[in-house]
Amino acid sequence: MLVALSEDQEFFRQTTERFLVQFAPPDALRALRDDPVGFDPAYWRQGAELGWTSLLVAEEFGGGTISGPGLVDLGLVAYEFGRHAAPGPLVATNVVASALSAHGSHPGVLAGLVDGSEIATWPIPAFGPRLGEWRTGVELRRDGDGVVLRGSVRPVESAAQAGHFLVSAHDADGDGSRLTQALVPASASGVSVTPLETVDLTRRFGAVAFDDVRLGPDALVGTPGEAAVDVARQFQVALVMLDAEAVGAMQAGFDMTVEYSFDRYTFGRPLASYQALKHRFADMMAWLEGSHAISDASCIAAAAEDEHAGELLSAAKAYIGQYGADLLQDCVQIHGGIGVTFEHDLHLFLRRFTANRSLAGTPAVHRQHIASYIEAREEAAA
Amino acid sequence: MSAVRAEESAEPGELEDLESFRLRAREFLKANFRPATMDEMRWDFHASEEEELAEIAHERGLQRALFDAGLAGICFPREYGGQGLTPAHQEVLNEELIGYEYPRRTQIPTFSPCATVLLEFGTEEQKLRHLPAILRGDELWMQFLSEPSGGSDVAGALTTAVRDGDQWVLNGSKIWTTGAWWSDWGLCLARTNWDVPKHRGLSVFVFPIHQPAIEVHRIEMLNGSREFCQEFLTDVIVPDTDRVGDVDDGWTVGIRWMFHERMLYTSPYVTHPIGSTPSRMFSGAVYNVAHEAGRLDDPSVRDMVGEARMLELVSEEMSGRVAERMTRGQLSDQAAALVRLGKAQAQTRICTLALEVAEASGAAWAEDTAAANSAVNFLMRQGGSIGGGTVEMARNVVAERVLSMPRERAMDRDIPFRDVPRSRPAQS
Q1: CB contact under 8 A, A270 and B309
Q2: What is the mean pLDDT of residues B51-55?
């Protein structure tokens, strides 16, 4: 999390923190385990009142920021979400809200996202190890005035809870490589959702199929064929939130394990007194500070639409995914047997972390993306 | 005690604004400094002694040119020849220096930790005598800190200073002084009292290195470098006026000394182009090896090239974050050990990645290639985890001083240093 918050930002962060402490304590999370929705709609609407879904939305559509760049403020919310393994479609709704706001598209849906009455989600397209190789799995073709979507995407966060999908599709016009986006009502004929199982206790995922879904021209978001830049931006917004959540989860697991190391006695002394464990805590703290640092730097760069944002975001996703896993698994190890039980709280954070690590690119693919950035720089310099 | 801040030496109204400072630095560099060559981006371990001395003379000249242009010692107070400006000005200079040659050997350890220690603990007379000379490039300094008997246990120094009227007589040996053979002055930690516990019997002295009572030996390292030296001190006479800090209170100085050493690459007292820190050079090396071998189409190689850059980016951002958290009082100064640890974690891995990408070209080579460098660097891989205090010490510091975990049991506390065991007992 950011080192230096303005007074407004700190107040905002604390408001979300207090809310989550009160309404998303570990026992409440456990109780949501078998809930098909994974969150209480009233909780979500209250969160929206706190600003959770309006930070990337222009003022004319009812949005607004705390500090200027809304993505930095949203990073604070996402960090608190991770630190409390909080329920709710934070990533999904914010990506869609930012895209609709950017294009002034579908103001009615947008208003619902802002006040928390609507849920929408962006099926994150698959992609290859080279930059810009999107594999949306969905084709969009023209049909008179309207368009027809065909294909499927998985996993899609909050698929069964969403009223709308922001679908990134390969446009059948031209060579098929260009991207076009459309906002698809979940109720549209030909849309079907198959729920999926997941490691996260409260986030829900589904596989979404578009079986010749016919839509009017008003379904399009942005300029047809020109959506690659939008998709890239949505991907950046998603990465910022996924990483901030992951770092929050790491911090929670680390703090909990440091406390435990002082409390737990064995052979007449606390775990914290064993050098073998002290050295592991030192390594963990270095990974944790590194994760905070790269998460913040990439968030600030993305908020400023800096040209290096993509590389920093890939570095963050790769580093946090790799070292965060080592950190949280070390936390489990240091807890011993209790660390792998459902009754302990540690797994709440391991779950959120693990889901986020797997979404929007694993460490390996992001490392390869970094190579693409280096290559582009070297070729430009040569 | 915190570092002396540059702002204290000038009224806010007098400070040169950053933009005019930037333009001034830019124009000066364009007119007076050559563009950096690849050779200057890395240490050349095969240069002859004459070549190396010529480079050092050249760098002293660069330092002098910076001084004459009002660009030396940006954060040093004006009364000592500095500019009395802010860390932000230093950062601007470091940005403008990108792509230029710069006086590398005059920076570390001369400006930090040596000059920063003088700035914090030196007498007015010492500061007036040495700081302007350092800023002009006339005095290059070295740290006489580590000893052959113990690297990490710095406070266990055996080099002894005995008082003789208004002077001190020093005997012992120091080691791991980079470039002592071409340097001018030493900052030395020595034992002045053997009858008190180890941290309470140390004092700090300064003296010229080139004198008959000091013998300097050069040490050959695994990469061919002969920069490190060992010195033998035999009845070195130091006037009491060249003592830094109080008698037997040298550890107070030592703590700050080592703090500055750990924070070198984010120090506002050091001038170097941004991106010249060792970690960045290492990451580029992995790409260079891959490029040279034509392996950039191999996904596993791309993975490794990306990993190196990832580690470098995180290491840089982490240094900045921890430094800022210490400045803001969110973390104690001891958290500098986190930066040290993070850099070592990154460097060791990056070293291994370069060798991995080199494949068999890392086993044998005909000419000086990136692959050859990766192999030689690999031999020295642990250097970054040993020098400046081992990572094991850094881990202890993080656990005990930052996370407040119980201290390791020490066998040398609360007893006179002369009674501390220093070697394996004789077998009976």
Answers
A1: no
A2: 92
Q: What is the architecture, at CATH level 2, of domain B143-260?
A: Beta Barrel (2.40)
pLDDT tens-digit map of B288-336: 999 999 999 999 999 999 999 999 999 999 999 999 999 999 999 899 9
pLDDT digits (tens, 9 = 90+) for A173-216: 989 899 999 999 999 999 999 999 999 999 999 999 999 999 99
Strand-strand pairing, A164-171 and A138-143: parallel
Residue of B nearest to A281 (CA): B399
CATH number of B277-402: 1.20.140.10
Residue of B nearest to A255 (CA): B403
User: Homologous superfamily of B6-105+123-137 in CATH?
Assistant: Acyl-CoA dehydrogenase/oxidase, N-terminal domain (1.10.540.10)
Same domain, A76 and A169: no
Residue A266, burial from CB neighbour count under 10 angstroms (0-12, 13-18, 19+): exposed
For the purposes of burial, counting CB atoms within 10 Å of the CB of B406, is it exposed (0-12), middle (13-18) or buried (19 or more)?
Answer: middle
Question: Residue B318: which of A258, A278, A289 has the nearest Cβ?
Answer: A289
Residue A66 confidence (pLDDT): 83
Instruction: Name the DSSP class of B405.
Output: P
- Which chain B residues are Cβ-neighbours of A296 within 8 angstroms? 317, 321
Question: To the nearest whole angstrom, how far is the Cα of A145 from the nearest Cα of chain B?
Answer: 43
A163 and A94 in a common domain: no
Q: Do A4 and B328 touch (CB under 8 A)?
A: yes
The domain that holds A33 is classified in CATH as 1.10.540.10
State pTM to two decimals: 0.89
Containing domain of residue A342, as a range? 229-381
Q: What angle do CA B61, B84, B1 make, to 5 degrees?
A: 110
Cβ contact, residue pair A368, B307, below 8 Å: no
